[in-house]
Backbone:
């Protein structure tokens, strides 16, 4: 509550405004610039001689006859097979989100309602698992997966991503279920429900805010993953992020930078839309572990 | 909840974690004691009218046979850990005996791949983590001071760097500061040095990646601090204002102590995330001058000729030990709290 005690001097206010504007520029300008540049040809966006070309679109005009061109997008999506990568991303994301929420809600509910010592230890182990760099886990997967001949296909990657995602989902949903009063399901138990019935009829109707937050984070993990998808999927099954990396080219073959630029924009846009709609949930999820303890 | 019910509720997620996080760690451990087979070579005698030459070629058939019989490779014990690409025990002994000054010795050691990567990873953690905390806190304070109505869009703009994947985030920055990008080209013009570029200087590359790290992680610190600031009680602050405390004093003596537990939480999470730095190195194509532990593992796993499972696994095990050392203070503290709580 503000009683007008905390008056700020105009100098401080101006300084604050300048700081926020500067920070927002630093945070957002790279994305705006990439979005703008994705409608140019390479000679304009990556110009050594004159950066103004990127604004005036000198070469774009020469090469395509217009100031803006969507060539990079059409080529990347058709010739570059980005459509396939986005299809794979959608498959991976949908399955990872639904499976990890299914497993996570059950496990986290049990953890939040258990008074035993082992619940604490399970949470601690989950924290340690959360700290494992994904690449160290991948180095453990590769060899067995080659031997079992399940390397390179989407189901393997989905299962792996679900597992990697579990520790965080468990922690998030655990702290959410802690805020759901115990009395709710206890009264159902007294009335003769089994734990599963109590979960199904009492908890499920009220758990959606927490589930949406956890779902968003699973989605961001699956959608953004590079380490696991790049190493566990074969060329055919690559999702968007490894696909973008393959456009960059290596020493052996030259890439197509403008494809990468348009692919980056295509991959980022849906994510930004999503976060715009669910901003509140994202923020509550990030703070769940911290503020609630 | 009875143990039996707990078991059935927890079984699916527990199984997933044991199979795909627990077992892989063990599998990494086992792999780290094996090394890939040497290629079997045979002497081939080639005779032509001018005489005979003996050349050594790889016997592909034999090599495949051995690989198929023992796919894990040959047992190497701690050999992989101590070889040149990892702890480099012999090399360090040699350097210690041969180099004259301590500086020269350090120079030699930091050129070994593992130590090079370790030093980069630690430098990255050391510079990024405190700056992330500081910048995140300042942004939170300053956004907390603007009118409530416009905060929503401002928060959205602030968290953008965090929600994109590190590869995309670093690419987006790289395209601007590259010698052909808007910032890079302008700096070249300003300095009048057409050869000034990111790739030409190791220090510049390191600084760029560290700046990227701060840019990418600060929003996370911001979000958590911002939420914590909403819970700071108003009464003590008002009392402090009446007592004539300056803005800085209020932050130092009231706000900071209140959000202190959150600061440790953010520091821990960002330390864990920074320790696995890897994607920006690919995004900035900085492999030449900056390598991290995670990047070393990746490099072994995408090796063109034969995947170096053993080498990757040994680096992984040492990375895990590093993580354990980082986490140890937290775990010990939680354990003590848990014991006193009972």
Residues:
């Amino acid at each position: 509550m503000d009683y007008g005690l905390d008056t700020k001097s105009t100098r401080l206010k101006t300084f604050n405004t300048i700081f926020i504007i500067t920070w927002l520029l630093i945070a957002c300008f790279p994305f705006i610039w990439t979005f703008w540049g994705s409608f140019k040809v390479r000679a304009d966006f990556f110009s050594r001689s004159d950066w103004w070309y990127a604004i005036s679109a000198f070469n774009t005009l020469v090469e395509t006859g217009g100031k803006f061109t969507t060539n990079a997008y059409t080529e990347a999506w058709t010739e570059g097979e980005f459509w396939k990568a986005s299809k794979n991303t959608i498959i991976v994301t949908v399955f990872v989100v639904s499976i990890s929420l299914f497993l996570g809600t059950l496990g986290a509910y049990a953890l939040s309602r258990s008074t035993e010592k082992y619940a604490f230890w399970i949470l601690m182990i989950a924290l340690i698992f959360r700290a494992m760099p994904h690449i160290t886990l991948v180095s453990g997967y590769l060899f067995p997966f080659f031997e079992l001949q399940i390397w390179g296909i989407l189901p393997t990657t989905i299962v792996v991503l679900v597992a990697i995602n579990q520790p965080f989902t468990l922690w998030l949903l655990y702290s959410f279920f802690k805020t759901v009063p115990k009395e709710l399901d206890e009264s159902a138990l007294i009335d003769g429900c089994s734990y599963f019935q109590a979960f199904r009829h009492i908890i499920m109707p009220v758990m959606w805010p927490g589930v949406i937050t956890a779902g968003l984070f699973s989605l961001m993990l699956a959608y953004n993953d590079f380490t696991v998808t790049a190493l566990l999927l074969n060329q055919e099954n690559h999702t968007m992020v490894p696909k973008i990396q393959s456009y960059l080219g290596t020493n052996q073959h030259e890439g197509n930078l403008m494809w990468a630029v348009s692919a980056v924009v295509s991959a980022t846009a849906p994510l930004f839309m999503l976060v715009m709609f669910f901003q509140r949930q994202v923020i509550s999820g990030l703070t769940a572990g911290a503020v609630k303890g | 909840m009875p143990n039996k019910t707990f078991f059935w509720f927890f079984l699916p997620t527990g199984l997933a974690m044991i199979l795909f996080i627990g077992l892989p760690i063990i599998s990494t451990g086992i792999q780290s004691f094996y090394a890939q087979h040497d290629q079997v070579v045979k002497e081939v005698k080639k005779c032509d009218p001018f005489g005979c030459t003996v050349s050594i070629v790889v016997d592909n058939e034999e090599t495949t046979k051995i690989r198929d019989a023992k796919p894990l490779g040959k047992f190497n014990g701690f050999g992989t850990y101590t070889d040149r690409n990892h702890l480099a025990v012999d090399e360090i002994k040699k350097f210690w005996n041969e180099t004259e000054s301590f500086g020269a010795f350090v120079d030699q050691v930091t050129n070994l791949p593992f130590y090079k990567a370790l030093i980069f990873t630690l430098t990255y953690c050391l510079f990024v983590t405190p700056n992330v905390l500081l910048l995140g806190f300042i942004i939170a304070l300053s956004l907390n001071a603007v009118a409530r109505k416009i905060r929503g869009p401002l928060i959205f703009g602030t968290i953008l760097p965090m929600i994109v994947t590190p590869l995309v985030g670093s690419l987006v920055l790289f395209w601007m500061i590259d010698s052909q990008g808007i910032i890079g080209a302008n700096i070249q013009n300003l300095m009048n040095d057409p050869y000034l570029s990111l790739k030409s200087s190791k220090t510049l590359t390191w600084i760029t990646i560290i700046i990227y790290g701060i840019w990418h992680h600060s929003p996370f610190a911001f979000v958590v601090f911002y939420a914590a600031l909403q819970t700071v009680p108003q009464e003590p602050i008002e009392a402090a204002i009446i007592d004539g405390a300056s803005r800085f004093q209020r932050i130092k003596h009231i706000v900071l102590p209140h959000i202190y537990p959150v600061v440790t939480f953010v520091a821990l999470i960002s330390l864990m995330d920074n320790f696995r730095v890897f994607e920006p190195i690919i995004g900035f194509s900085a492999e030449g001058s900056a390598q991290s532990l995670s990047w070393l593992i990746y490099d072994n796993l995408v090796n063109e000729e034969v995947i170096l499972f053993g080498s990757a696994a040994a680096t992984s095990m040492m990375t895990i030990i590093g993580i354990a050392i980082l986490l140890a203070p937290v775990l010990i503290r939680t354990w003590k709290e848990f014991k006193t709580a009972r």
User: Anything to note?
Assistant: Chain B touches chain A through 105 residues (CB under 8 Å). Chain B has a mean pLDDT of 85. The two ends of chain B are 19 Å apart (CA to CA). DSSP finds 15 helices and four strands in chain B.
